[in-house]
Amino acid sequence: MIRLVQLELQKLLLNRTSKILIFISFILPFTVLILSSIKINVFGFFTLELGELGIFNFPIIWHITTFFASYFKFFFAIVVVSMIGNEYSNKTLKQNLIDGLSKKEFILSKFYTIVFFSLAATLLIGLATFLIGLYYSSYTEANIIFREVDFLLAYFLKLVGFFSLCLFFGMLLKRSAFALAFLVILYLLEWIIVGIITWQFNYNIAEKIHNFFPLQSMYKLIDQPIQRMVMTKFPDKADLAYDYALHFHEIVIVLGWTALFIFLSYRLLKKRDL
């Protein structure tokens, strides 16, 4: 596994564009550190400091940082689809196979790299969240600090699942731009199907089915924290209550899609005439 990851890292680090995108994908999530220190002057009447609003308290901070950091995954998604596009355009795929790398090892090298970068991103955002929480949170008890650390697991699985989808589209289309365009098409297609099901039946049925779709199932790992942030300031608003927790069945669905995308990528490569 280490050998395969090293092989991919050599390819990526020799490409200037990939190095820049990887750097951006790791640095941008740390903008949450900047947000935590922002002070907003409201028409000269008072100063609003985000860090003093309680949104960086434990345990809610795990939810907030992982949710917003997950939106920066699109930068590394470009790297993932470029990994495949460059293999075809530079003829390195055929050369790797000639040099003794099996098709299974080729796909695994991509997947292991995805897991490696996802794990690195998770550790970094976990460290940033922990440090911000220690500075701003009014809760210092260990059971409160680590109560919702499972959002880090959700973040990791979300990255691995999404990048595996990008890998599959990259293998299917061989071109980075087309693969990224298909992500948009898939997103629109999911919502079109939801609209049709809602029209034929009702939204509750459509929502349950929607949660099994690839992109939506990944999104459901970390539900939006906006309502929860409002609830911390207005606890009497019972109508704002919702289920934001990470559930086992949500993990299983995303793991299922991830395994399917990797398997389909391998089948495409195995059957394709290079």
Automatic annotation (TrEMBL):
- What name does this protein carry? ABC transporter permease subunit
Q: Name one Pfam family in it.
A: ABC2_membrane_2
For this protein, the parts annotated as crossing the membrane are 20-40, 60-84, 111-132, 152-173, 180-201, 251-269
Q: Which UniProt keyword terms apply here?
A: Membrane, Transmembrane, Transmembrane helix
